[in-house]
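Dear Dr. H.,

I hope your travels went smoothly. While you were away I took the liberty of generating a structure for the chain from your last submission, since the lab meeting agenda had it listed for discussion. I wanted you to have the full record in hand beforehand rather than looking at slides cold. The sequence, exactly as received, is reproduced here:
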Amino acid sequence: MAILSSRDLQVAEAIGQIGYCNPFLPQRLELERSALGRDFCCADPVINFPPNADLQTIFPNFVALRERAQVLSETMRRKLLSSTTPTERELCIYQNLAMYLLYNRHMSYLDTVAATPAEGAKSAQSSAAWKDFQRDFAAYLQLPGLPLPKHFEASHSFAVFFQIQRAFNQIFACIIGRSMPIARLRAAVWESIFTHNMGRYARAIYKSMGSIPTLITGSSGTGKELVARAIGMSRYIEFDETLLRFKFDANSSMYSVNLSALSPTLIESELFGHRKGAFSGAVTDRQGWLEVAGKQGTVFLDEIGELDLSIQVKLLRVLQSGTYARVGDTVERKFAGKFVVATNRDLSQEMAAGRFREDLYYRLCADMIQTPSLREQIADCPDDLHCLAEFIARRVLTDLPEEAKALAKEAVDWIAVQMAPNYAWPGNIRELEQCVRNVMIRKSYTPVRQSSMAVGGSVHDCFARDIAAGRFTLEELIERYVSMVYAAEECHYGRASKRLNIDWRTLKLRLNPELVETLTHR
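The corresponding predicted structure, in token form, is as follows:
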């Protein structure tokens, strides 16, 4: 006897597959339509989580799908308990459907665990959430006489569900907007975490995903660090059934190094650590971020295109063998964590120029993400300007949501009146952030390019005219010249200091960050 009618089995199969698809791709809506038929409610293809929105608003088919999953899974469960022998396909469909139902039942509890900051409180929440989940898991999936695949084990399923919830939270906390470029970015980040095949990830790949580095490319100011955070904070964390808690705190798993802000010696020390006496100033032994991060941690290397060739060789060794040594030490250490790296440079050009090693690039390019420009976002969805302005305002006016809304509206209204409708936002989200802050303080904002052109030329033209007119003090002249050389050498400390014949530390002290930002966005 069939466990369900042909149509009900198709519905059950579609609902079960929803749990394994990328929620940010069109396949999700196709599966929802297949499962609900005439009851399907048309939904926005771009999922967005506005503040304080409920799930029914964001996922209009959420309740109907959960109710249908509940009815079908109960029907199948009763027949399985009454000794009905399922086919292999029927059993697979039932198990996937039950997993979908369990996630939807427990997602709010998992969300509470993810949001609980204190370690003691988090452990208590994890313990309570686990006991409830374990009871439901046994009722639906540990049925007498029915085989259960290893990847359906309760503790592993609980850990994957917790990872899914954290991934949702991080993606929506870090990636803001309703445009299609943002939808594609969210889908790409989801695949960086779970791959395109969630079933295979849960069965086999979850243990080894950390060994695959992620390379994020995109223009300066497009939020590459936020994308890195979404990936790094969403890694799989094993649940310990004995201690009744997760084995690692995701909130302390991300370690960032801005390579463009450090000399080669300091980069080496930051990454690998050093022995006492390894160099001037090394007065004690020091752990590097690779050692601190451990197996569950993620090391984010920002501006990988700035990395000195001598350090590239050492990083390549870590990626190839997982081994490294502290500066001044011969003891080999292991790094089993994950690398996420980012650059605003065209690495193909850097390789052609001999500034970036091809073998290092081919160790980094297994998983690549490109962040869209603010101009692309707004061109596809003009409302994204307001979404992003409010996101920025909420960071400026923490815990003051109404004030943040008012500031965002004020900034967007000012932009609409005072700035060109096709303004390119060359500084991307970082420039929009400064615009919002300027409007908050002075109710005005003057774009750098606009101010340069207003006086009749480029930044370099203005510099030449000001020199001829004797408008600089000696200190101002040095600062501007050093900044221009640094920008001309693509913000590389080694090349700029060599060209100026000064120590890199002196160079760093003389730089004008705002002028460098202007010059690098020409």
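Two observations you may find useful: Confidence is low (pLDDT under 50) at residues 450-457. The chain has four domains: 6-206, 224-370, 391-445, 459-520.

With kind regards,
E. W.
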